């Protein structure tokens, strides 16, 4: 059988070690689908229900495995649907290849049906590499170049194939004469080679760190392969470890050296130690919220990042180290003087213990309606020691940040920098594909889940035992609280009745579904769902009036919050019954 371009593409993906493509067919990619079909023994095509989910799946796959994620969509609407998930990959620095269709070349420019110029549309998201393939002889060279760009720059690359090109006979590799040799066959080529640090940069970094008296570390997802090294360096410097939310998995939450997260969803001790430290070591992070970092001039800063262009983005840096986090910390450790005065660390360890006790108190099982903190704690308690938790943007991120404990080999993922709604479930589907033996749990709000809930059907249809926990407050909870904090009366953030019954949806899909509103039934329902051999969903009614309070409440936030209540927030009685009451009473007195 004559090889067509679609198959040449699929074969080249296989040669690069790609084993999964997430996507949805359409009349703009029939030739590509035929190519995928011909390689189906080696290349799994995961058929989804919405292209946005396919892009989230490719992104989630890349986040969890460190390998290239690949998604495919038809021309026009399909390609447009991919965009949000692709921006998630771009903003969180993970490699994804997007493959789309295009009208056939003979009708381009003729206002033909679905003629959307995706290379133009993708100019921003796929700025690293973005090409419409117009000649079969461009393959497989352009596939190699696209993949190399995605991997080297940890970003999105895009190839668009017109219909006629997809089914054209595959040509010769135009680069073969220039670069002979075997095509890439090892999956090792899909991962980043570690980059060591320059000695001069390390010497400067060590000098700054050794001179510090109150050293803090801020570690992000770029340090995910450097857990032991982060802990060793923190121990030598007697430095508390603060984690970004995306970097939550880097160090276990129950490790004595960490004070947890930073930012609105962070902890009070982390925030206060940032205000007090005289030296900050940032590793593998582009933490975006400058107001939570030391004030300019307060602390000397050392930053380790693999991407030189991202160093110094948030704070002026005294020592910049462009290198892989793990290698750089290994190189740095012998250059550090072990600090004997550990008073800065122990002070914040005490504060951290007090903070944890406060968080545990909020997980009160007797609160009715169910406190979302209690819901998260029940999942936390029942989940395995290597479970993966994904979550959406919204109040769920706060509950996960504070009540999902990284211990053992547990992991945690969310859309960090795009902060989009809806990736929780698609991430979970992709990660379950990548790690069939592990427990994968999506902790989502009713808002985010409703956006892409058809992907629960994908999980059932692909026999993926993902677990979905819906934190159902029947509202856009995060926005509700933002309106209140800004001093506006709440508007258009609570859904009208009827409330959706997502458990019924799960059962209608052929999965397990339970609806819970009684706190006493919650632990048993969570355990049962997690033990269920197939896809399972628990739709849990939680208190919609539970405020996701910042670790350290700022005066303006609290003032607006208080004023909004005193002005007559419609749900004030219910909300006052929660933790906010104490804070408000404090401010009133
Ligand atoms: P990134 O921004 O992805 O940065 C990772 C860095 O590591 C990059 O600079 C990269 O170049 C570098 N890197 C990659 N690989 C390596 C390597 N091998 N060696 C060295 N460097 C490497 N975040 C918070 O921290 N606190 C909050 O309160 C918070 N609230 C949020 C609320 C919501 C609802 C949502 C959705 C998100 C929230 N976030 C919060 C996430 C936040 O927006 C950022 O995405 C996050 O802080 C960035 O974390 P990061 O720096 O670890 O990751």
TrEMBL record:
It comes from the Bacteria. Coiled coil: none annotated. Residues 171-193 are annotated as: Disordered. Residues 392-540 form the Thiamine pyrophosphate enzyme TPP-binding domain. One of its GO terms (molecular function) is catalytic activity. Keywords: Pyruvate, Thiamine pyrophosphate. CDD domains: TPP_POX, TPP_PYR_POX. The keyword Lyase does not apply. PROSITE patterns: TPP_ENZYMES. Residues 5-116 form the Thiamine pyrophosphate enzyme N-terminal TPP-binding domain. The keyword Hydrolase does not apply. PANTHER family: PYRUVATE DEHYDROGENASE [UBIQUINONE] (PTHR42981). Belongs to the TPP enzyme family. This is Pyruvate oxidase. It comes from Micromonospora craterilacus.
